[in-house]
Specification:
The protein is an alpha/beta fold. Helix content is about 35%, strand content about 15%. It is globular.
Length: about 250
């Protein structure tokens, strides 16, 4: 998770990154968030500060372990909070919300999903996890604009990144969507890139069926990796969306 600031926290947003990425994606958000709002980046095993741990390969395993950790940290869920997930992280965060509620823990005040297909639209996407390194990088570039050029130019860095990416992609390929009537009690706020061909606005809008009153969907300028490419604009959209739901 990004560093926590010193002032009192009135509300929190727990942010799950894109497939293969880690909590550093949200460090800029944690520094730019308004006073009283804590931004917490989720750090799955196998990346950044947890590089020595083997990555998990099923959404259920990821969610169960994270729910255990959140429940075990005193006071973490005492203040109003939202869950946010980007692409693969959107599905994982949706399942995290369901798991926390099923365990009798405080429910999120809102759920934000960025650049992600809704559960009933996840398949068929891929398969990606079985492609060789070059084919996987080419496919992600073609479909999502997704592999930073610095990784393409430095094979050693690319080899460090790909195992966690493959694990997340495998988890998505084995994901079993819930019943179509499943919905959260809180609003679902879906944000996408206007130039994201993989998650067009008409598909993004279908997320609203998974939320309560106040659910909405809208697009920003940009493509699939809009949080990475323009973090300030993405944070502004998130804060606007959360305005009615967090103190």
């Amino acid at each position: 998770m990004p560093p926590r600031r010193a002032e009192p926290i009135n509300s929190r947003v727990f942010c799950w990154p894109y497939a293969g990425l880690g909590a550093s994606l949200f460090v800029a958000w944690s520094r730019q968030a308004p006073p009283g709002l804590g931004i917490y980046g989720i750090q799955p095993p196998g990346r950044e500060s947890r590089m020595s741990e083997p990555p998990l390969r099923r959404v259920g395993d990821m969610v169960s372990r994270l729910a255990d950790a959140m429940a075990g940290e005193p006071g973490l869920l005492d203040a109003p909070y939202a869950l946010l997930g980007c692409s693969f992280g959107g599905i994982a965060s949706f399942e995290l919300a369901r798991t926390l509620v099923a365990r009798g823990l405080p429910a999120p005040a809102a759920f934000i999903v960025v650049a992600c297909r809704p559960p009933h639209r996840v398949h068929p996407v891929g398969p990606f996890s079985t492609l060789d390194d070059d084919a996987l990088a080419d496919r992600l570039d073609r479909d999502y604009g997704g592999v930073p050029e610095i990784l393409r130019q430095q094979p050693d860095l690319l080899r460090l990144f790909l195992p966690t990416l493959r694990a997340d992609l495998e988890a998505m390929e084995h994901y079993v969507p819930p019943d179509a009537s499943t919905a959260l009690d809180c609003p679902v706020l879906a944000i996408g890139g206007a130039a994201d061909d993989q998650v067009p606005g008409s598909v993004l809008e279908e997320w609203t069926r998974y939320g309560g009153d106040g659910s909405a969907a809208w697009t920003l300028a940009g493509r699939h990796f809009l949080v990475r490419d323009d973090p300030a604009a993405a944070l502004a959209a998130v804060l606007d969306g959360l305005g009615p739901w967090l103190p």
